Amino acid sequence: MPNTLKIAVLLTCYNRKANTIACLERLLRNTLPENYTLAVFLVDDGSTDGTTQAVNQHYPQVTVIKGSGHLYWNGGMQLAWENALQHNADFFLWLNDDVELKENSLETLLFTYQSVRTDSSNPVIIGNLCDEKTGELTYGGCVVDKGLFHFRSRKLPVSDTVTACDTINGNVVLIPKSTVDRIGTLNKNFTHAMGDFDYGLRCTAVGIPIFSTAGFIGTCSNNPISNTWTDPTIPLKNRLAKLKLPTGLPPYEYFLYNKAHTNIFTATFLLLTLYLKVVFPAAWVNLSNLLKGS
Q: 104, 141, 217, 126: which is closest to 173 by C-alpha?
């Protein structure tokens, strides 16, 4: 009889009770190979909409961890991960609570993992997601374009075959324990964004392969740009304020991210162009087009 393998599912949430419950319902409805089990670790980062109570009522098997109220995505996922590490899991599955998985999504992730693993490498697997209405790719595997004056990631088109990637969107990601043993968990320098891309790039830097699934394993809509730091219709003062929020793109964290994966010159240049993008949106577009060939 094969050994039982445990998947620790990591989620973090804040005031999205309906999304969180729907996500857990889809997750726990998934079929698994008979030698796999799930343990779910959910950080509720100070929700006031009754999320914890609803989860405890409907899914008492889920371990709910109370957050400080200031964790955001990276901090919340890190806290979930720290708790899960105490339970001897063989895999860790990042899952955003706005993702709606197909009923065979976990089987697809595990099949993909088994199909590309070798005796010398245990890959990270990312699930491709699409918009429920349009069917267009929203989140998945990414490749990196790097030059002296640019460092950007772009989403890979979805294929009928498994595709190699440089880094990851963190919405649905299967990570084997061997990866954690080698590079650890999320980088605490990041509050909300960039932690997932940073983790994928850290994997690539040490030769841990990353692959995206063939086709889509679920749905998830893109985050809207309305009333964010990228929204050119709101006043400059507001855009600058929103840029510096944890849910924006905090400039110091952005600098640290770029410095870690390029060099101090490129990181400084990218920090300047970040402000250019906020202050002069039209000029940023022209500069971006010019630098694509760099």
A: 126
**What are the residue ranges spanned by the domains of the chain?**
5-219, 236-291
10 Å CB burial of residue 23 (0-12, 13-18, 19+) is buried
Residue 225 is predicted with a pLDDT of 85
Kindly indicate the confidence band of residue 294, based on its pLDDT and cuts at 50, 70 and 90: very low
Task: Please give, one letter per residue, the 3-state secondary structure of 48-60.
Answer: CCCHHHHHHHHCC
Full DSSP string of the chain: -PPPEEEEEEEEESS-HHHHHHHHHHHHH----TTEEEEEEEEE-S-SSSHHHHHHHH-TTSEEEE--S--HHHHHHHHHHHHHGGG--SEEEEE-TT-EE-TTHHHHHHHHHHHH--SS---EEEEEEE-TTT--EEE-EEEEEEETTEEEEEEPPP-SS-EEESEE-SSEEEEEHHHHHHH-S--TT-SSSSHHHHHHHHHHHTT--EEEEEEEEEE-PPPP-TTSTT-TTS-HHHHHHHHHSTTS--HHHHHHHHHHHS-HHHHHHHHHHHHHHHH-HHHHHHHHHHHTT-
The DSSP bridge pattern shows strands 124-130 and 210-219 to be parallel
Residue range 5-219 in CATH 3.90.550.60: yes
What is the C-alpha separation between 88 and 9, in angstroms, rounded?
A: 13
The band of 133, judged by pLDDT with boundaries at 50, 70 and 90, is: very high
User: Which pLDDT belongs to residue 223?
Assistant: 87
